[in-house]
């Protein structure tokens, strides 16, 4: 009896194990790894990218000229400026390029405008640079510096703008150099004219005083021939 019960228990256990082996439980799913979020650009980088894209569209539409990669030659790119004016403006540019890096940055432009007697606010200085800043680097190259005067001559600057004040004050200094040169030129011409006039009247006076001593050439008598003027003696 006891052996039969034990045999039944063993059979039930075998059937249970077979049932468990025939219907396996599904394996648990692996946890899903979340994807990293996309990087967010700062506001300044977003604005710079927008400005670059806008400029590219303007270049494609022909609204602006693309920047050249060749070596900058101010004499050929700005033929309306004389060589002397370009040299003077280059000297002024180097004077205020305190960092000697070939650029005038915001602080150097601030000092320049103060020296010229037309100080600007911080926003005014940034606006001045932005108007001619073709490469969006926030500072003025020598070409962009010359572009200020090109725009002023073409009437492309507002009369009350900081760039117009810079152009006017700088041109006054250059004009003074020209006025000084013209003054020297006309003084030399006046002196030459005065000398020629004095010689003309002296020659007329001598012709009237010594008419018999004039030769065929009409030249004045030599010093030894002026004796008639002193009573016929050859000594003065």
UniProtKB/TrEMBL annotation:
Positions the record marks as coiled coil are: none
How is this protein annotated for GO cellular component? mitochondrial inner membrane
Show the Pfam families listed in the entry: EF-hand_7
For region Disordered, the annotated ranges are 15-42, 215-236
Q: Where is the composition biased (Basic and acidic residues)?
A: 223-236
The EF-hand domain covers which part of the protein? 84-119, 120-155
Q: What keywords were assigned to this record?
A: Calcium, Metal-binding, Repeat
- MF terms (GO), sorted A to Z: calcium ion binding; calcium ion sensor activity
* InterPro entries (UniProt xref): EF-hand-dom_pair, EF_hand_dom, EFHD1/2
CDD domains given in the database record = EFh
Q: Which residues form the signal peptide?
A: none
What is the name of this protein?
A: EF-hand domain family member D1
Gene giving rise to this polypeptide: EFHD1
